[in-house]
Design brief:
This protein is α+β, with helices and mostly antiparallel strands. Helices cover 17% and strands 45% of the residues.
């Protein structure tokens, strides 16, 4: 009994490790689209000044829909003037007929390098329709970044929205 349990745990760990590597390789291939019809430039920003001790934040909003015919959406933004030390992206997507789709959220630089990625929960029954990524690095004015939302699996056309925050 104990030996069977140990073999089962080892098999599960192997499956989880190789599954994670496979998903990462697929994600890297999917982002190498230089110019695509699914890209949207984000230019409207809202500046939120904090109180003493609170960071200043520049905020961009995005929203769209993932479908079988349009399985990814890309939102491009340029770092505005100012000093920013991190990018935080929060995304929410919604159930379709009471079921969850599975979406991936990535932050990509202008060289198509994935800086941060959220594939969602390992266990599907813990899905809450949220994805979050953060990149803590000093940002240069004029640098271009992209937020990529990709289909992993769909139960139907899935709407999503989110916020990109540049923080001082």
């Amino acid at each position: 009994m104990k030996k069977t349990l140990l073999i089962g745990i080892a098999a599960l760990l192997v499956l989880l490790c190789f599954g994670g590597v496979s998903a990462e390789k697929v994600a890297e291939l999917a982002v190498y689209q230089l110019s695509s019809p699914d890209m949207t430039d984000i230019t409207d920003a809202e500046v939120l000044s904090g109180e003493a001790g609170v960071q200043d934040v520049k905020s961009f909003s995005f929203e769209s829909e993932i479908t079988e015919s349009l399985p990814s959406r890309t939102f491009q933004f340029t770092v505005p003037s100012g000093v920013y030390n991190s990018i935080q992206v929060d995304m929410k997507f919604y159930q379709v007929d009471g079921e969850w789709s599975d979406l991936r959220l990535k932050l990509v630089d202008s060289n198509n390098r994935v800086l941060a990625q959220d594939d969602g929960p390992w266990l599907p029954f813990t899905e809450n329709g949220e994805r979050h990524v953060q990149y803590d690095q000093r940002l240069q004015e004029g640098d271009i970044y992209r937020v990529v939302v990709e289909k992993v699996s769909l139960v139907g056309d899935t709407e999503f929205d989110g916020t990109i925050k540049l923080q001082t």
